[in-house]
Amino acid sequence: MQLASLIPNSANGTCCFPKGAVKQGGHNPIVQKQEQWKFLKSLAPPLVAAAVLTLSPICITPVSDAQTLDVQKGAALFRKTCIGCHDAGGNIIQPGATLFTKDLQRNGVDTEEEIYRVTYFGKGRMPGFW
């Protein structure tokens, strides 16, 4: 599409559009494009608002309230019974028996069931907590 440019037409300074820039019937393509652009700009705020709401954490709920409660109970139990030896996941009594994944795997405690068993019954110098 050729942009409309003004070309002097006479000595008195009047100007006109180049041939073909304005279609017959009074429809100016520049005005039409401006109207389309205004319409698209008017759609931007509602579309942005919809995207923000869709991706916002307000719309994302926890898996369940019970799971949230279990996590909170587990954290409280850890603070009560475990943190004395396992502060920050380490182990002040036996340095090779930390709660870090590599040490858990090396010591054969790599499943949820095994973690439960060791926590409940104890292992080595660690007593069981039930």
Automatic annotation (TrEMBL):
Q: Which InterPro entries does the record cross-reference, listed alphabetically?
A: Cyt_c-like_dom, Cyt_c-like_dom_sf, Cyt_C6
Q: Which UniProt keywords apply?
A: Electron transport, Heme, Iron, Metal-binding, Thylakoid, Transport
Q: Does the keyword Electron transport apply?
A: yes
Outline the extent of the Cytochrome c domain.
Answer: 69-130
Q: Which GO terms describe its molecular function?
A: electron transfer activity; heme binding; iron ion binding
Question: By its UniProt entry, which SUPFAM superfamilies does this protein fall under?
Answer: Cytochrome c (SSF46626)
- Pfam families per UniProt: Cytochrome_CBB3
Query: What does the sequence similarity comment in the record state about its family?
Result: Belongs to the cytochrome c family. PetJ subfamily.
| Role according to the record | Functions as an electron carrier between membrane-bound cytochrome b6-f and photosystem I in oxygenic photosynthesis.
* UniProt name for this protein: Cytochrome c-553
